[in-house]
Specification:
The protein is α+β, with helices and mostly antiparallel strands. It contains 15 helices and 10 strands. The structure holds protoporphyrin IX containing FE.
Length: 394
């Protein structure tokens, strides 16, 4: 068997899916939480269940991977900006960003379309913070460090003899420095770093860079992963695609099927399929006890496939009645998590996914020539190959 880091991560995420789909028992040796009440209890007690990102922490500290007082302080640095970006009046701007990128595409390949969407997502992120850095350069940077992310993730989940921790740490620090150089090349972005540094109570510019880098990971990777899944699922069935297109003639608030399609895609393919937490004290969950020092893994995909919450959970249903009727179990649909550590960019992401899908469908149609699902996992899960997608202009 191929034991390359990427293959190991893909096997890991496949196992989470197989357990959720009841195809295999949970023999991963992990304390896996799939019960809605236990998951809720974990999310509502963030001061007990700390973030557990393993070696991803080598990329630095940010609101994504700190806890307690430090997290509350870090959250305050970006909270208002992300809230503003998630207001409906930003929607048209987001739509224009995607449309402009799609209009510049020279070749109609999946790589060109997906790259355009990645750059649009990066522009939206930068616009929210008032930065002028070239989005294409930052997207290239994230692509460039993707193999490092894969190694940081694998070394957190598996002990691979080939991976030396000091070497990974050194490469992660080098990546943060490269990112800092990129940010400093634009005066507006440099000013943003200074502003964040000043508010950081003894923090350095490097601390501010780490905050922005992890924010970019949190925001861009998950959004572009969701967009890839949306385009992928749209291509599976022409009738679904035409029904999604038909909803575009309605007002944004009236697009029930369009919104349902997005929700069902996030249910079936949550960009973050599971999250790990470390118990900092003994704790009683509704159905089990957790000891101080235990690592628990909440399976988001497990909750999204919960048989008591969903009719035919293992089927992808673009007109899922629970979503169409707005009667779904809120504990079992948590692509953005729940509780105090809910995704900081949730409102922005919801607007952005709809705007990106609309921008695509105003220009293109997509066909997926291979319905088989293969997932590639690093920080987020995304379709393993884009080759089966065939785009055409309308
Ligand atoms: C479809 C898109 C997105 C999905 C599915 C998603 C999902 C998530 C999830 C599950 C977490 C919790 C991770 C954990 O606890 O380990 C999270 C955290 C976070 N996300 Fe998102 N996210 C998305 C888009 C965004 C965007 C666009 C931004 C900002 C531009 C963003 C910013 C954040 C931040 C700052 C956190 C940390 C929140 C905190 O603990 O204070 N996300 N996201």
């Amino acid at each position: 068997m191929d034991h390359s880091p990427q293959v190991l991560l893909n096997v890991l995420v496949k196992q989470f899916y197989q357990i959720a789909l009841r195809e295999v028992p949970n023999d991963m040796g992990l304390s896996l939480i799939e019960s809605p009440d236990d998951a809720e209890a974990v999310f509502m007690a963030p001061d007990v269940f700390h973030k557990c990102f393993g070696n991803i922490d080598f990329l630095g500290r940010s609101r994504l991977n700190t806890d307690g007082e430090l997290w509350r302080h870090r959250r305050g640095l970006t909270h208002a900006t992300l809230n503003d970006a998630g207001k409906p009046n930003f929607r048209q701007h987001i739509f224009n960003r995607y449309t402009a990128r799609f209009d510049q595409i020279s070749e109609l390949t999946p790589n060109h379309i997906h790259r355009a969407a990645d750059e649009a997502a990066m522009s939206v992120f930068l616009d929210a913070f008032g930065c002028q850095t070239d989005p294409a350069e930052l997207v290239s940077f994230l692509e460039h460090i993707q193999p490092l992310i894969v190694e940081l993730q694998t070394s957190s989940w598996f002990r691979l003899a080939s991976q030396s921790t000091p070497d990974l740490q050194r490469r992660a620090e080098q990546a943060v420095r490269q990112f800092e150089d990129l940010l400093m090349s634009d005066p507006e972005t440099a000013a943003l770093l200074t502003r964040i540094t000043e508010r950081m109570e003894g923090g350095s510019r490097l601390d501010a860079t780490e905050e922005v880098l992890m924010g970019a990971f949190a925001g861009i990777e998950s959004t572009t992963s969701a967009i890839r899944w949306l385009f992928n699922r749209l291509g599976i069935n022409d009738r679904v695609q035409e029904r999604v297109v038909a909803d575009l003639n309605k007002a944004v608030s009236e697009r029930r099927y369009f919104d349902c399609f997005i929700k069902e895609t996030l249910r079936y393919f949550p960009p973050i399929p599971f999250v790990a937490r470390l118990a900092t004290q003994d704790f009683e969950l509704p159905s089990r006890s957790v000891k101080k020092g235990d690592r628990v893994v909440v399976s988001i995909i497990g909750l999204h496939m919960n048989e008591t919450a969903w009719q035919d959970p293992f089927i992808f249903d673009s007109a899922r009645p629970e979503f169409m009727g707005d009667e779904y179990n809120r504990k079992c649909f948590i692509p953005f998590l729940k509780g105090p550590r809910t995704c900081g960019g949730m409102r922005l992401a919801e607007i952005e996914l709809a705007a990106a899908l609309e921008a695509l469908l105003k220009r293109f149609r997509v066909r997926n020539s291979d319905p088989k699902i293969n997932i590639a996992y690093a920080l987020v899960s995304r379709p393993a190959q884009s080759d089966p997608l065939i785009y055409s202009r309308i």
